[in-house]
Amino acid sequence: MPEYKAPLRDIKFVMNELLDSEQHYASLEGAEDATPDMVDAIIQEGAKFAEQVLSPLNAVGDQEGCTWSEEGVTTPKGFKEAYQQYVEGGWPSMTADPTYGGQGLPASIGIVISEMVGTANWSWGMYPGLSHGATNTVEAHGTEEQKQTYLTKLISGEWTGTMCLTEPHCGSDLGILRSKAEPNADGSYSITGTKIFISAGDHDMAENIVHIVLARLPGAPEGTKGISLFIVPKRLPNDDGSAGEMNAVSCGSLEHKMGIHGNATCVMNFDGAKGWLIGPENKGLNCMFTFMNTARIGTAIQGLGASELGFQGSLAYAKDRLAMRSLTGPKNPEGPADPIIVHPDVRRMLLTQKSVAEAARALVYLAAQQADVVHQGKTEEEKKAADAMLGFLTPIAKAFLTEIGFESANLGMQVFGGHGFITEWGMEQNVRDARIGMIYEGTTGIQALDLLGRKVLMTQGEALKQFTKLVHVFCKENADNEQLKEFLEPLQAMNKEWGDLTMKIGMNAMKNRDEVGAASVDYLMYSGYAVFAYLWARMAKVALDAMAEGTTEEAFYNSKVQTARFYFKRLLPRSKGHAEMMLAGADTLMDLSEDAFAF
């Protein structure tokens, strides 16, 4: 298994030099404690925890998996102890509301910790990751009593949380869920139903688990308009706030999965379990989006982590592994062969992973800064603009990063050749773990429909224009910079084409609504490559400016410029294929009759 090393230099580059986090935190309400020294200390300690505690447990979790018994689920060796260290370190409370025991730091700092935790050990990181979503949901929609009872425990890390959405017959169509909520005389509800694919649904790491559950009230409207949201704890709270007697909720079984074996993916049975309504009746799906959007950004981090972990493993291997000679003459003449990093195709794979990981980091951190403004912006105008930008970026981050992150994980395995297929190197585990990213929290297809249908076309392109305006301003401000010309010219052309393609799809959709679904995934992938192009152009500018001013880190900054050049020449051209495919028309997909698919 690759020994994870937090990429601190690149993390600081993105935070401090690309996104100017010091100025960003100064612009927020109530972020006075997020000083450069404080942020740096937090990241350093987070890196130690990820490297020294979580990374060694990654292969353990994969090999042992979780075990089920009637008493509950047991996590792999070391997971529970690592979680106790996590709680003792104060990590769960870092970005939470101080009113309920949190430290009140901006969410973007927590995202950096989530990246390091998730890359070191994705299965373990999902346990506290789900709790972040539960925390945000109770904070946004809970009553004061619910906040005092549940939010305080979630923030301290004493209790963890889950998201209970789908059922055996539902998949992503939550409008047909059947779980019921019958009112009780004491104001609580009796929740009955079965939920599947519940990550971290049961475990032995915390004393209680707070399930956030979708169910229907009696007489509720059909479809998504008749769904309500409930808090259903594994153990009922005592009057003093401690975890009391068991509720009628249990893990019926564990799913047998391709990857993320260290995380308990559960079938959860609610047999008249006591729960409490959170948010308005029949508005449960609206409230649950607070949780789902948290989870989607979290899943975007998985794409980043898969690429980073694959890159770290394959880079070390490529420098060490000897095989064949360089086509331009021996580079290791004293040895029997050259290290494989001298071969162009190995370089292609490594640079793909590097360029994806570094741009993915920039995108995730950019989205996290928008989330900061939504929660801590000083004006309503700022908050509204940031919310719109975050809404636009979220489906791109979730779907594009998991798609291209999975490709990077596969390339990490490919660099090893036959050894990549062998368990002990850890590359095949990274591939297996990463594969779920394109499925859970809304598949790539669902994210693509959200982007093109809801975020772009239903706003008459306003969400897209907000982003393309950023690109336009950047290009205009740097129009006289000759060193940036190789990046700005294709970026400007793509920025214009993005709008033109959107207009064409919108016009086609007015005649046939299937055109949206037919174009959506290619549109999302195109959008991802466009966003990466903007970020790589910005990173190249930062690097070029640093070298022009004089620096002792010339190699680091030169690497940034050369990686940007690789991205523009080798990966960005893929967008041309997506542009052609998104305009190919729905008839190429819909004309073939169902009976003619196979004979």
3D structure, described in words:
The protein is an alpha+beta fold and 599 residues long. Among the domains are: 287-452, Up-down Bundle (Butyryl-CoA Dehydrogenase, subunit A, domain 3); 461-591. It is 56% helix and 11% strand. It has 19 helices and 11 strands. Strands 3, 4, 5, 6, 7, 10 and 11 form a 7-stranded mixed beta sheet that branches. Strands 1-2 form a two-stranded antiparallel sheet. Strands 8-9 form a two-stranded antiparallel sheet. Strand 8 (235-237) and strand 9 form a beta hairpin. Helix 6 (107-120) packs across helix 9. It is globular and about 80 Å long.
Number of continuous helical runs: 19
N-end to C-end Cα span: 46 Å
Number of strands: 11
- What's the CATH architecture of the domain at 287-452? Up-down Bundle
**What is the general shape?**
globular
Per CATH, the class of the domain at 287-452 reads Mainly Alpha
Low-confidence stretches: none
| CATH topology label of the domain at 287-452 | Butyryl-CoA Dehydrogenase, subunit A, domain 3
Mean pLDDT: 97
Strand fraction band? 5-15%
What's the CATH H-level superfamily name of the domain at 287-452? Butyryl-CoA Dehydrogenase, subunit A, domain 3
Instruction: Please give the share of residues in helix.
Output: 55-70%
Radius of gyration computed on alpha carbons:
24 Å
Largest sheet: 7 strands, mixed
Structural class: alpha+beta
Oligomer: single chain
- List the helices and strands in order: HHHHEEHHHHEEEEEEEEEHHHHHHHHHHH
